[in-house]
Design goal:
Blueprint lengths: L1 H13 L10 E6 H5 L8 H10 L3 E6 L2 E6 L3 E5 L4 E6 L1 H7 L5 H11 L2 H14 L5 E5 H7 L11 H19 L2 E10 L2 E11 L2 H11 L27 H8 L2 H11 L2 E4 L2 E4 L2 H10 L5
Antiparallel strand pairs: 1-5, 2-3, 4-5, 6-8, 7-8, 9-10
Helix pairs in contact: 1-5, 6-8, 10-12, 11-12
């Protein structure tokens, strides 16, 4: 399913579809491209993926106004199963179009990740699309999903974490499209399961952030490696002080501040998660020097 989303985003790129369109867009994509390399030759799984995509809802708040949409409004498989025709609504186009938008940045990140990082990213992305903020795997399930169950050295949790999971998480978090936290869970003295908690950016918010970042020439953590990589955040003097300060913190410091100021707030009888920027501003207000 994640691979299909990447290819739909790529097809929008190929057609040079702008991020903002007044009407829905029809795409024609070879089914072999959507199925992905090494997949089964029929369209059984592709049909299931497309059906699931019609139920994937996007929602958020943009400049104070709530919005909602689906990624895929309609699909047809034609020409003896060789061609897919997909109808993408305007908000779906916005959520898939590159590079000034979240989902395309996500696709860039996933395509540029390699090995264990890409595999873990795909696993978590698929669970995220079920509308869950976290997921728990047994260690055995995780070994199988990561494709390392045949390597006996990874039967030892310490080796699995050191050589597979920790490097994968570091690479994923470095892209900035999602923040993932891993929590091992013990049964007795042995690690029995692993819980992953994540926070993906809202696509419209990420689009604004990216447009702003494109004005910057410096970077917060390291130099831009390639021209097609997602822009990085600069902590220059024109940036908002709270966000500049937040960007200079370590991951551990940001985690601590998030726990201090709270990751959620109550409104209308509901518990609503705070955006990263709002957590940063709330934390900045508590810094003694401010």
């Amino acid at each position: 399913m994640v691979a299909a989303v990447w290819e739909i985003a790529g097809a929008l790129d190929d057609a040079r579809t702008p991020a903002e369109v007044p009407n829905s867009v029809w795409l024609e994509i070879p089914t072999a491209r959507l199925r992905g390399e090494g997949s089964r030759a029929d369209n059984v799984w592709l049909r299931e993926c497309l059906e699931r995509l019609t139920g994937v809802k996007l929602s958020g708040e943009y400049r104070g106004d709530p919005w909602g949409a689906v990624v895929l409004a309609e699909w047809h498989i034609e020409q003896g199963g060789s061609l897919a025709r997909l109808l993408i609504p305007p908000a779906g186009v916005h959520a898939l179009r590159s590079p000034a938008n979240f989902t395309k940045i996500e696709a860039h990140a996933a395509h540029r990740l390699s090995g264990h990082a890409r595999q873990l990213y795909a696993i978590l992305s698929d669970k995220k699309r079920l509308g869950r903020p976290s997921w728990r795997f047994t260690v055995e399930e995780l070994r199988a999903l990561m494709g390392v169950e045949a390597q006996k050295s990874y039967d030892v949790w310490a080796q699995l974490r050191k050589r597979v999971l920790d490097p994968a998480l570091e690479a994923i978090n470095d892209y900035g499209t999602v923040s993932v936290k891993m929590t091992p869970e013990k049964l007795g003295r042995a690690v029995h399961a692993v819980r992953f908690d994540w926070s993906w950016k809202d696509p419209h918010t990420a689009a604004d952030t990216t447009r702003e970042n494109e004005r910057h020439s410096g970077t917060r953590r390291k130099s831009q490696a390639t021209d097609d990589a997602p822009p990085m955040i600069e902590d220059g003097p024109q940036a908002e002080p709270a966000l500049t300060w937040w960007g200079r913190l370590t991951d551990a410091e940001r985690e601590s501040w998030a726990e201090t100021v709270g990751r959620t707030f109550e409104a209308g009888g509901k518990t609503i998660p705070r955006r990263d920027a709002d957590i940063a501003r709330a934390a900045f207000e508590r810094v003694p020097s401010n």
